[in-house]
Amino acid sequence: MSTSNAHSGTLAFSVAQTGFLLDRMAKDCGELQFLRELTENSIQAVLKTPTKSGEIVWDADWVTYDLAGVYKLSITDNGEGMTGEDMIKYINHLSSSGGIQAHNANYGIGAKIAAGTRNPAGLVYLSWRESVGSMIHFWKDPQTGEYGLQQMKRPDDSWGHWAHVENSVKPDTIGAHGTKVVLNGRSDDANTMAPPEGASSPSRWVTKYLNTRYFQFPAGITVKAREGWENDRSDKDRNVLRTIIGQKRYLDEHASASGIIELTNARAHWWILRNEAALSQNSGFVGSSGHCAALWDDELYEMTAGRGNTKTLQDFGVIFGYTQVVIYVEPLETPGVEIITNTARTALILNGKPLPWADWQDEFREAMPIEIANHMEAVAAASKASDHKDSIKDRLKQIEELFKLSRYRTIKGGPLLVSGDTQASGGGTRSGTGKANGAGGAGSQSGKTPSVYALFMSENGEPGKTAKPDLFPEVRWVSTADGSRQVGDMEDRAAKFLERDNMLLINADFRVFTDMVKRWSDYFGNVPGAQPAVQEVVREWFEQSLVEAVLSSNTLRNAQHWSIEDVHQMLSSEGLTAVVLPRWHIEQSIKRALGSKFGALKGKVA
Predict the structure, then answer these.
(1) How many Å apart are CA 215 and CA 291, to the nearest integer?
(2) For 135-162, how does the pLDDT look when each residue is reduced to its tens digit (9 = 90+)?
């Protein structure tokens, strides 16, 4: 279809093979994106009514079930409704809606892409305006492969792309006006109430998606979804309509503390959820435990899931107790800042770029709410803080020249006093007199730094600070037994290194560690109190291997043949797990240490 402009003489751009175009665009949409698109269309329809209030219901289409015995998913609203001609105008045009078309608006293309392409057998629209019902059938023509309105023969033998419909099939939700959409799926006998493959919470998949998609619904609008549809309709305990409340109401009701932090061009909303059974029991229908998302116009984007929850929250500085913390960052549209969604409405775009998560995470860390800090401290208290640092440091002093020591740089107001030039070079260090040691002067060692403390020599010190406060990482042993590690985090992995915090989390439940503890505990089974002592020795030697791996990996940063990605790979959980897999040398160290504790070892370890 094309048109020309009589004034400019321009022939308007047209699109051929719209079926291919829609199918290609649909590949960018999530499997459940159609739920959002049709819900949003219903919200907009309700907001156009005089009262701006109403009800939206996701349910089985009981008319189809009663007549054909097939479950079909449907959505019904009591919004303003449409006439037959309205439906042709709004449904059968690629980018058309009943509202204003804009880059940051619901621009009318979403349902056609996300819903239409997943229901080639058709979307049946039934709509009432002033108590007069009309219907259309949007489908993919199996002969041409094109999407459009199916032609239908009316009762008066006329043909058209819409027809009137009897009020006997009008849902109870609809009075004088409203719309119902029935999703036929890929065939007339397809069960579209069944969740798509891989959908979370199969029995509550519609509820779970919409609750985690919407922060909150407009005041006056109620959204419901059917659960337990395969049970008898008289079973009001299992076959029920659940009210969908959105994340905000749920989080507010289950939080022990909450607040807002102002960030650059954004604000971070945070909640600390109560440590209760609801953290896991309610996960079937709402985001009930720790996660992060972007918030925009009362919708949630880029929500984390699974292991992504742990990583993102730890990037925000929530190292411990992250299953109880939720953070939503809401970008603010200020002069010079444009925020739009991608076509599939799965992500936000800020001035043409992805959201600056790393910057926001750094700012959040700097302004960490005291409530979250206290929460982390309480949870961390249950973890096993390593007390092996001094003994490991003493052993590594013998090879300290193999590790790069941290450099110091001048900074105004810093806590240390350093000389103006502290960077060691091939010709030696700079002394407080400004003369270069290593150039033949008294006490020179010809370019070799005599001691790490030479970096601190100063006649008139200037305030400074370390580029890295401590070379050694802080070490914590974590376990599901004390709640310091959650199931799924570091599962069957040895450790995790948090670079921003210079912290090494070691998984006390990892089988390499527990097998070694059991091996030596069994050997010293006749020694009272042997097991705790064995555990400490085993942990100390494995910890040393992991600490050395972190220190050594960091020496390769900025090397010619090592990229930062290479270093990150070595410091990944998989890389650190590989470090502790060779066990012969650790076995010998453990054997000597236990021998000194319990006396000479006799025979072979069982």
Answers:
(1) 13
(2) 999 998 999 888 889 999 999 999 999 9
